Every structure is written in C-alpha cells, then in structure tokens.
TrEMBL record:
The lineage of its organism: Eukaryota, Metazoa, Spiralia, Lophotrochozoa, Mollusca. Pfam families: RRF (PF01765). GO terms for cellular component: mitochondrion. Residues 67-222 form the Ribosome recycling factor domain. The keyword Protein biosynthesis applies. GO terms for biological process: translation. Belongs to the RRF family. The keyword Nucleus does not apply. InterPro entries: Ribosome_recyc_fac, Ribosome_recyc_fac_dom, RRF_sf. This is Ribosome-recycling factor, mitochondrial.
Amino acid sequence: MCTGDPTVRGRYYCQSPGVTVLEPVVKGGKKKVELTPEELDGVLALPKLKKEMQSAVEDFTRQIIEQVSIRTNIGVYDSLQIRTPDGVFPLIQLGQIVQKNPNLILVNMASSPQYIQAVKEAIAQSGLNVNPQQDGTTIFIPIPKVTREHRESLARNAKMLHDKAKEKLRDISNKYVKKVKSAKEHHSEDIIKSAQDMVLDEMHQFGEELDKILHAKQEELLGGKN
C-alpha cells in the first residue's frame, strides 16, 4: 500500500505486510526502515547490537585518550598489557613506574626481571611513539619532544586505532546479519531484509561517531594545538 504525495520528498512511501516504514528520507534519498519490537522478536536483538557497537566506540575513545596524547600521561603505562609466558598482566603489576621528569619515565623491574624483554617489546609496540632503553633492571622511556613529526606520528596512530575500531564494528555487524539470515525460515523476506538494513544502519551511525572522534583528534594534533 502506498500513501502520501509523491511530489513531496520524504512523504511518499509504501508499506509491505508486516513491515513498518517510517516516512523520513535519510541520506541518499533512501527511506529508513524500522521494525517494531514484536517484528524483531526472534530476528534481531537490537538493544544488544547497539550495546556492543557502543562498547566499540567507547574503547576507541579510551584508546585515543590514553595513547594519542601530545603530553604523555604516566597512567597510560600503568594499564599497558604485557604478554608473558605466565599470562597477560598490566605493567603496574610487574614494575614500579615513576616519572623522573617531564621528558623521562622509569620502570623499575627489580621485582620481575624475567619480564624485562616482554615489557620492552610491549612498550615499543604500543603505538606511543617511544623507544625504551634498558640499564640493568631499569627501563628508561624518553618522552618525545612535541615536534611536527611527533604530532604526525600520533595522528597516524589515531588513524590506525580508528581503522581497528571500524573493523570491530564490521565484525559485529557481520555477526548479527548472519543471525538475522538464520531466522529466514520463520519470518517473511521483507522482515529479514529490513532487519539486515537496520544492522547496517547501526554500523554506519556508530561508524560516523568514530569518524567524528578521529577528526577532532587530528584537528587537535595537526592544527598546532597543545
């Protein structure tokens, strides 16, 4: 059934049996399709999907705050995950972390010298743009000066974290699309198609949040702000 005035953008729409189509037109002129909770039952757990995608955005935000800062925060190293033969531990559990001065952080590994190499590798691969050095059981972490090159390196790291977060959203989306398709034997084709569209719409919306966070951080880094 079609209703509305076809000459008015966003006011002309058709409704298939069992599918609720909202009137507003979204980007690209496509009509946004929504299903009621009753129609979604057994097809798509929308609140759970949103929660997982929101978690991916929050993880990205936390990583940006901790790992992509012009002024290095010593707290970043506290939670740095160290992979060892005995398991994965935050650095704070393996060594004593002290900021000697604004340009140098020390990690005293006297209590866990067997993990020094693992700690050095984790720091070097953390994306924090630092080059750890060792003297006995102490690891020295020189803090890079805030140069244009340093800002550009941080911006690249932000983009890398952004790409990983986008990939996580795609993985979540693919998982839920697969679940939706598995329900096709018990639901109409229209409902299955609409549910898949809803999953993709959520992925795009949360993806736009990631884009905004990345854009703001890159503006901060490359716009000359401290």
